[in-house]
Amino acid sequence: MNGVTGEVVNQASSDFPLVSVGLPTYNRPEGLRKCLEYLIAQTYPNFEVIISDNCSSDPSVQDIIVQFAANDKRIKHFRQTENIGLEGNFNYVFSQSAAPYFMWMSDDDYFDKDYIEKCVKFLEANPGYILCSGVAKYYSGDKFLFEENMFKVDEESSRKRVFKYFSKVGKNGNFYGVFKRSLADREPIGKYIGCDWVFMGRLAIMGKLSFINSTYYYRSADGHSTTRRSMIRKFKFNWLQAFFFETYSAFIISKNIFKCPSVHKQFNWLNRKFISARLFFKLNWKYFKYAVLRRIKK
User: Fold this and answer.
1) In the chain, how long is the greatest CA-to-CA distance?
2) Which of 84, 107, 146, 173 is the most buried (most CB within 10 A)?
3) What pLDDT, on the 0 to 100 scale, is given for residue 223?
4) Cα→Cα distances 194→62, 69, 212, Å
5) In a 3-state reduction of DSSP, which class is residue 144?
6) Contact at 8 Å (CB) between 24 and 93?
7) How high is the pLDDT of residue 224?
8) What element of type H or E holds 267?
9) Alpha carbon 183 to chain centroid distance?
10) Tell me, what's the pLDDT at 268?
11) What distance in Å separates the CA atoms of residue 85 and residue 54, rounded to the nearest whole number?
12) 3-class DSSP state for residue 127?
């Protein structure tokens, strides 16, 4: 894999611990440009940006990356020689980081200038919490669509935290928060349906999750929409899995929640089986309620 690595300025200190921002990208040059403009304007001084171009066919993607990297030594960038998939690219930028704090950023999103600063300050002041995000707002182009109903997962019991997370999660905007890197698996994003929910569920088992309502993450609804049909194609479901799409998705999520060494050891075998089974039924109920509400709205 070809890469150009620059120095990281303002190396980590006790006042400003280093934050790695993982930025996987693929064929979105204008979104990437805007994303980088907001990133380099952050008020937090000590962070690095790790970009992985997933073998984009549009040459302007590399032009933009090289241009920004030439002007900011905090930017490290890599170009994959072949497309390694969305999940693989998310894992790749994570694998290139070594900072105590990490966050992912999508290549057509952006956030407020104080986003990293406020999230890190919260985590430093509250050691029981392992992830902090801002509030996610969704746009189509320049048109505002809605603000996500964010929620905290701050129960003392790890079992209660994981069940609360899965009962509340929707768009999963807190996935783009700052978290303590050491608690994540070596390849945190699995190649299966619901992998982002599984990742956040694992974090909920490890510690508390929070958000700050005074800073915002602006997410593009264009290009993020995933339909039932597209998921069936992507994960190559057979006809039976496709017919029972929601039930099978719940099964995959509950099956994978403990396939991470640091999470696996939190519970004994019996508790893991109980939590997985209860999670399976809770997700099925969640999907059922969503389907009923969708029909009522029609």
Assistant:
1) 55
2) 107
3) 60
4) 30, 33, 25
5) strand
6) yes
7) 52
8) none
9) 14
10) 95
11) 8
12) coil
Say what the pLDDT of residue 226 is: 66
Other C-beta atoms lying within 10 Å of the C-beta of residue 147: 13
The pTM for the full model equals 0.91
Between the alpha carbon of residue 133 and those of residues 1, 53, 177, the distances in Å are 32, 25, 4
| Strand segments (E) across the chain | 2-5, 19-25, 47-53, 75-79, 101-104, 110-111, 129-140, 143-147, 178-180, 208-220
Are 249 and 287 a contacting pair, CB within 8 Å? Answer: yes
| Confidence (pLDDT) at 4 | 36
d(CA 241, CA 227): 15
**pLDDT at residue 1 in the model:** 38
Q: What is the pLDDT of residue 105?
A: 97
3-state class (DSSP) for residue 171: coil
Closest C-alpha to 100, from 20, 44, 177? 20
Sorted by where each starts, the structural domains of the chain and their CATH numbers stand as 1-108 (3.90.550.10), 228-297 (no CATH)
Average pLDDT of the chain to the nearest whole number: 92
pLDDT value, residue 227: 79
DSSP string, 25-69: E-S-HHHHHHHHHHHHT-S--SEEEEEEE---S-HHHHHHHHHHH
Ranges in the chain, pLDDT < 50? 1-14
Long-range CB contacts (< 8 A, 24+ apart) of 148-152?
Answer: 148/173, 150/174, 150/211, 150/213, 151/211, 152/208, 152/209, 152/210, 152/211
Note the pLDDT of residue 166: 97
Check residue 6 and give its pLDDT.
35
